[in-house]
Design a protein that fits this description.
4-stranded antiparallel sheet; rod-shaped; 4 strands; alpha+beta
Length: 130
Amino acid sequence: MAALWDNLPEGVENVKKTWIKCAGLGLLALAAAWSATSALAGMGAAPQRVETKKSSFRYEPSCSVEEAEFVLREYDGCIGVFSPRSGDGPISVTDIELRSLREADREILSSGIAVADREELLSLLEDLGS
């Protein structure tokens, strides 16, 4: 193949360089098209179904509801912070939605989580919110 390029008349050197550039550009275009096609095919792929097992997680409260300073329960689809001594509504409502929680956490919240103090409250909310 090199002999073919060597026998070309003068002035054709630019044609040779242009041809090589076009061939390289064509290869880059093919690589880009292949990458784009692969990426789009990956985004359209059906997600694999993951089997969820019933969690054996159990929350052990640090105190009873009677001794608790706060109780966490569901309120309007989110986690509400209640006072066990007040029958009124929640002290505050978090932006943590129950639908974003694991099934085990939702089950625990349905009966209420007794919280001994503010430090434990902040720790639990951080865990539930992550």
